[in-house]
Amino acid sequence: MKPSGIITLVTDFGIVDPYLAMMKGVILSINPDAVIVDVSHSIMTGGIAQASGILRETYPFFPKGTVHVAVVDPGVGSDRRLLGVEADGHFFVGPDNGIFWPIIKDYRDASVIQLTENRYFLPHITSTFHGREVFAPVAAHLTIGTDLPLMGIRINNPVEIAIPSPYITDNTLCGEITRIDNFGNLISNITKKELEDFLKYSKPLISIGNMEIKRLHDTYLDVEEGEPLALINSSGLLEIAVNLGRASEYAGINRDEIIGSTVKVSRGG
């Protein structure tokens, strides 16, 4: 596969500390022409499933041959494996903790490599920062055309994580909130197709926490300022929002519990 020269980064590092700059410095030292794109560094600490969802949602919008580095790695320094994955014309580099499982599951012909060839790592490996010392240099080498299979051994048992799926019970479509965006909007795992297949020609009654919404809207301006709404967002997912407000606060659910909370859709007639 011809590399695009682009590397994307998803981490739980935040932007206060120098960790991202170190990773970017490593990448640019190997390939000064690399294009580095920050996807998100606001993943919850150790939020493997959240990072996985954002990566899965984002990567298709990049050119084939892009390298996607995901470092949400609470097991850093343990015996968890280091992975390089080639799937759907893209490369993925990070820890073997399930972060890439949804993509591997989507593409059964994915090539999964345990990274073992330390000539592609930095000379000194610490027990706390494999993002800098392993994943960044591996990604950089991929952008200059190094073949992924040369970097290790193929495996067929990557770590799996549970991928929550919407389900129907008691004539109610149930999904869950997978992330909160910067505007406080609640992004669910219910797709447009799942919603349409469930509703048929009925109107929806959508509820989460103390919010109840009786129709789907087209834009955020369909309701008055401060009022809640539901729409299908740009990724084709059911989203709960508040016009010029924050649904994450309006819902009346503790912020520590809102990701993973249930959103219910029933038929309103």
Characteristic key phrases:
seven-stranded mixed β-sheet; eight-stranded antiparallel β-sheet; Rossmann fold; alpha+beta; Elongation Factor Tu (Ef-tu), domain 3; 15 strands; 269 residues; elongated
Task: Summarize this structure briefly.
Helices cover 22% and strands 30% of the residues. With 269 residues, the protein is an alpha+beta fold.
What's the total count of β strands? 15
Order of helices and strands: EHEHEEEHEHEEEEHEEEEHHE
| Nearest-integer average pLDDT | 95
The third-level CATH topology of the largest domain is Rossmann fold
Domain count: the total is 2
Proportion of residues in extended strands: 25-35%
Q: Can you offer a commentary on this structure?
A:
The protein is an alpha+beta fold. The protein folds into 2 domains: 6-154, S-adenosyl-l-methionine hydroxide adenosyltransferase, N-terminal (Rossmann fold, 3-Layer(aba) Sandwich); 167-267, Bacterial fluorinating enzyme like (Elongation Factor Tu (Ef-tu), domain 3, Beta Barrel), CATH 2.40.30. Helix content is 22%, strand content 30%. The protein has helices at residues 19-30, 48-58, 101-106, 130-143, 192-199, 247-250, 255-258, and strands at 6-11, 35-40, 67-71, 82-87, 90-95, 111-115, 152-154, 167-169, 172-180, 186-191, 204-208, 211-213, 228-232, 237-242, 262-267. Strands 8, 9, 10, 11, 12, 13, 14 and 15 form an 8-stranded antiparallel sheet that branches. Strand 11 and strand 12 (211-213) form a beta hairpin. The radius of gyration is 20 Å and the shape is elongated. The mean pLDDT is 95.
